[in-house]
Design brief:
mainly alpha, two-stranded antiparallel sheet, Protein AaeX
Length: about 70
């Protein structure tokens, strides 16, 4: 987790991890669009598990950047 303060937008408070999740989601969708035409999913046993692991790794890397 990060030491950033809670963000209040239009009266709603968001913890810092919320923005890390959103950033990881954007990076995940961009990376997935890049990986699909390359044919890497032909070598993956279970694409849904691969996508989940990819998102978890991206979220971990992004959360480490904000600490």
């Amino acid at each position: 987790m990060s030491l950033l303060p809670v963000m209040v937008i239009f009266g709603l408070s968001f913890p810092p991890v919320f923005f890390e999740i959103l950033l990881a989601l954007v990076v995940f969708f961009l990376l997935r669009r890049i990986l699909q035409p390359t044919g890497i999913y032909d070598f993956v046993w279970h694409p849904a598990l691969f996508n989940t692991a990819l998102y978890c790794c991206l979220f971990y890397l992004i959360s480490r950047l904000f600490v």
